[in-house]
Amino acid sequence: MSSTTNIESCNDFVIKFANVNGSGSASANELFARAIMRMGVPVAPRNIFPSNIQGMPTWYEMRVSAEGWLGRRGGCDLMVAMNPQTWDRDLAEIDSGGYLFYDSTKTLPRSRFREDITVLGIPLTEICNREYADPRQRQLFKNIMYVGALTALLDMDLGVVENLISDQYRGKDKLIGANVNALKLGYDHAKANLPCPIGLRVEQSDGVGDQIFINGNNACGLGAIYGGATVAAWYPITPSTSVIEAFASYCRKYRTDPDNGMARYAVVQAEDELASIGMAIGAGWNGARAFTATSGPGISLMQEFFGLAYFAEVPVVIFDVQRGGPSTGMPTRTQQSDLISCAYSSHGDTKHVMLFPEDPHECFTLGAQAFDLADRLQTPVFVLLDLDIGMNDRLCKPFEWDDQRRYDRGKVMSAEDLEAGKNFGRYLDVDGDGIPWRTIPGTHPTKGAFFSRGTTRNAYAKYSEAGTDYVYNMERLRRKFETAKSLLPAPILQRASQPSRYGAIYYGSTGPAMAEASALLEAQGVHVDTLRVRGFPFADEVIDFIDEHDYVFVVEQNESGQLRMLLCTEGEVDPKRLIRVLHYDGTPITARFISGRIADALSEHKVTPIRKKVAS
Amino acid sequence: MTYLVKPNILRPDTPRNTLGYTRRDYEGAISTLCAGCGHDSISAAVVQACFDLDIEPHRVAKLSGIGCSSKTPDYFLGASHGFNTTHGRMPSVLTGAALANRDLIYMGISGDGDSASIGIGQFAHAMRRGVNMTYIVENNGVYGLTKGQFSATADKGSKSKRGVVNSDTPIDLVALALQLGASYVARSFSGDKEQLIPLIKGALRHRGPAFIDVVSPCVTFNNHAGSTKSYDYVREHNDAVNRLDVILPRDQINASYEPGSLRRIVQHDGSILHLRKLATDYDPSERVGAMNHLQERHALGEIVTGLLYVDSAAEDMHRNLNTVERPLNQLGDAYLCPGSKALHALNASLR
User: Fold this and answer.
1) Which of A252, A279, A292, A465 should one mutate to test binding to chain B, selecting the residue with the greatest count of B CBs within 10 A?
2) Could you tell me which chain B residue has the CA closest to the CA of A447?
3) Least enclosed by CB within 10 Å: which of A78, A413, A616, B200?
4) What single-letter DSSP state applies at residue B32?
């Protein structure tokens, strides 16, 4: 060992597990994360997995933070290297002074290690082969055994892990005993042979509070239930699949008629994305709240239908769990790269409403709100989350629902309205907000029927190729888009501790890393006001925020700066004042990346003021 | 078709159905198709069928794709909601609409380009999914709006108006529908309303996917010598296996049939299909037999028409999904929202 100082930290570090996909490691790693949370210390785990069922490398990164930073921090303090395929890169990733835990059954030459880290080896395979005869047990208990060893190394309470195992296998006593036994084998071996505890420790804390632990896709599925959705049509695609699976599962629980066991919902797996959005639009046209869930390639396939729903003015909700593109791109990696393709989906002049949830809590609230917005605005509403929020369990505020709340079904004319002689023109702007009234098929025997189409029509839904009818309609659609502004969730402003010329705009899953980055910058004496955008079209506050600052960093997880493009185009902002901070390698953005980029950019600014640059 | 507005005069002896509606109540906007277009005859047959069945127009939702055929829902049932969707994707929109409200009658109108070319995938999956609908393909073998290209149902060897010979194998949507699980399958000819109207009536009273392929000559681009979808060709090669009468429970049966010539099928709603046999050995309850018969006659250049297959005990998509009887689009907040108490319990399980 060299003289490098070991990292010493209590309740604030990053552990990364390097595993082989399909080896059962994910549940052991999650057990470990839950054990730390049971001790009251917030943890943000992230599964970095391949597009593969078995055999390829997979990682599980855990951010442990008593402060409650739930974004990725960057770096790695302890690597649990269980995959020989990725040994070299895993080893290289450990911060200097950090720790390496590995299976020491097979002796490795000194050259395969590093001098500046602490190496902790346990012959896991050897112990497993000695203790267990069944190959599957050897594999699964090896995982539990390293959880036991880590419990000792991090000075954690073994009882907490034992209790968790008991909870997990409640009713299957045989499994409890076997798992606890494996846990103790690892724990005892570490205690006897390794320097426990190491510099990283977990201490009982009270940072978790009443937070819940759930992933964004499940929260979207639940939001759709609370939002009143009855029809879900979909086609499986990573990373969105579990949105519908969760919806179906919550539906079985909450939407089964108690009297006869019949379903108050319909979930249809379509033959492709075109059919899934087609079904959702058909159901929306017919007055049911309907949605689909997809990812980038699905958004591409649905383009023509988005145009139809926009122009025929049919409410529908689309959950887009973004992944890396273009094309098949990185199906199991995260990005925020569908903003442009959603914002202007389809040919012709279209503009769509988008919502950007930050975490599972907002996936639920904005997911439910999306259905009210779709009905109110009679248009497709896109909820853009991403793999990082969608597929990773995350601590967040508990879900809340106001029982007084009623669904906003928007402007729907009833049989009574029609009977009373109200003037019904399907595309007539009677209220001046661009939103026309609609009727649901089957409403009235003689009044209110109309023919929906993607072709031009006059205000009374009659086919028309007259330019004036077309222009009337397009101008009304623009007014409707303006109306949407006031209905979307407001942006969230966070002022720096001191007045600043600099701002940062961000959205969605960048939130937690941005929050920590702000704290890191403040600690360096760099003050940046931040604004989290939650919807498109942009609220006036977003443009005001840019106006208030000399320069605004636009932090996002795509290559081309898509939110920045929208700000320039829709907000008519001078592009020179918007500085890109872009992270797009498929892993979630980190606090260190954001703070580093902003600090560097600001120090450059100080060296060569922009005015001088312009003058020269 | 004429562009003159029809006079709105009702004679005292104008026939009314039991709801008090006249045939005019089932008509729509004036057609903009070519004079003599087979599609207009199909629209007229739809009007007659709905009038005869005492269907309330507003209880029908009519959906279509893109093309000449898909324009026609505007020309019948003006008091019904209609949706002219995207090219080849009507089946999915209709499926979604049917999911939202199981109580309406769904009519899908499509063409050979719309269903056999761009939309063959959605056509196939709507059939196998058991959507409760009447799906009519107005089949003329050409693209009319783009001026006469072959569609996928054009027969091999048939000649276009410009003299081009089609070298591709045709798709027979009837054969596909049979194979894919449609539970009411028929073929007819737009020039034979005596045959067509009862077939549409039977389809409207059928539960499950009912498919009717209606050969409907395109007078502008496909009605010449060398076409196998012209009026003359279809009249000469029409090989009807049976003639259908749809008898409603309220009707008195006063027609007399020769012994052994009649096949009687009761549908789920009590309506009775009387099939007068023309091909004595043809059994419309036998799916495989129907497929064989179709192939054999097609090989001989014949166009088999009539009610080719019916499963009167078929289930539909809503049965398969076990959805509640009340339409999903009519469930109120209390039926949909689990409320705060359930959410608190769920929160507790996530800690």
Assistant:
1) A279
2) B79
3) A616
4) -
pLDDT tens digit string along B314-340? 999 999 999 999 999 999 999 999 999
- Read off the pLDDT of each residue in A366-388 and give the average, rounded to a whole number: 98
Among candidates B61, B73, B89 on the partner chain, residue whose Cβ is nearest the Cβ of A441: B61
* Whole-angstrom Cα Rg for chain B: 21
pLDDT of residue A3: 62
CB contacts under 8 A, A 328-357 vs B, are: none
The single residue listed with the structure tokens 């200097």 is A96
Residues B170-211 have pLDDT tens digits of 999 999 999 999 999 999 999 999 999 999 999 999 999 999
pLDDT digits (tens, 9 = 90+) for A33-73: 999 999 999 999 999 988 888 889 999 999 999 999 999 99
Residue A437 at interface with chain B, using a CB cutoff of 8 Å: no
The partner residue sitting opposite A274, judged by closest CB among B92, B336, B339, is B92
In angstroms, the CA B76 to CA B47 distance is 6
**CA of B273: how far to CAs of A239, B184, B195, B253, in Å?**
50, 12, 13, 12
Domain B23-334 coded CATH 3.30.390.50: no
- Pair A491, A532: CB distance under 8 Å: yes
Q: Does domain A213-396 have CATH number 3.40.50.970?
A: yes
| Structure letter (DSSP) for residue B140 | -
- Please give the structure tokens belonging to residue B105: 């009658």
The CATH topology of domain A9-201 is Pyruvate-ferredoxin Oxidoreductase; domain 3 (3.40.920)
Do B331 and A308 count as a contact with CB atoms less than 8 A apart? Answer: no
Beta-carbon separation of B323 and A263 below 8 A: yes
CB half-sphere exposure, A53, CA atoms < 13 A: 0
User: Residues with Cβ < 8 Å from B295, sequence gap 6 or more?
Assistant: B175
* Angle between helix A273-285 and helix B90-100 axes, rounded to 10 deg: 50
Closest chain A C-alpha to B67 CA, distance in angstroms: 12
Pairing between β-strand B81-84 and β-strand B60-64 as defined by DSSP bridges: parallel
The rounded mean pLDDT for chain A is 95
pLDDT tens string A108-147: 999 999 999 999 999 999 999 999 999 889 989 999 999 9
Task: Give CATH for domain A492-615.
Answer: 3.40.50.920
Confidence tier at B249 by pLDDT (50, 70, 90) = confident
Question: Hey, do A9-201 and A213-396 end up sharing a CATH topology, with the first three levels equal?
Answer: no
Domain segments of chain A as ranges: 9-201, 213-396, 415-487, 492-615
Cβ <8 Å between A287 and B56: no
Whole-number percent of chain A with pLDDT over 90: 93
Contact A278 B331 (CB under 8 A): no
Q: CA–CA separation, A546 vs A553, rounded Å?
A: 10
Interface confidence (ipTM) of the complex:
0.96
pLDDT of residue B254: 64
Please report where in the chains the tokens 């000695």 appear, as a residue: A130
Query: What number is the average pLDDT over the span A395-401?
Result: 98
Whether residue A239 has pLDDT greater than 90: yes
pLDDT computed for residue B276 by the predictor: 87
Tokens of A154: 């991090």
Dihedral pair phi/psi, residue A316, rounded to 5°:
-160, 150
The region, left, alpha or beta by phi > 0 then psi within -120 to 50, assigned to residue A40 is: left
- Of B272, B213, B276, B228, nearest to B247 by C-alpha is B272
Mean model confidence pLDDT for chain B: 93
Joined tokens for residue B216: 């409907």
For the stretch A526-529, contacts whose Cβ atoms lie closer than 8 Å and that sit 24 or more positions apart, written own/partner, are A526/A598, A526/A599, A526/A602, A527/A496, A527/A497, A527/A498, A527/A499, A527/A500, A527/A502, A528/A496, A528/A500, A528/A502, A528/A503, A528/A504, A528/A553, A528/A598, A529/A493, A529/A494, A529/A495, A529/A496, A529/A500, A529/A502, A529/A503, A529/A504
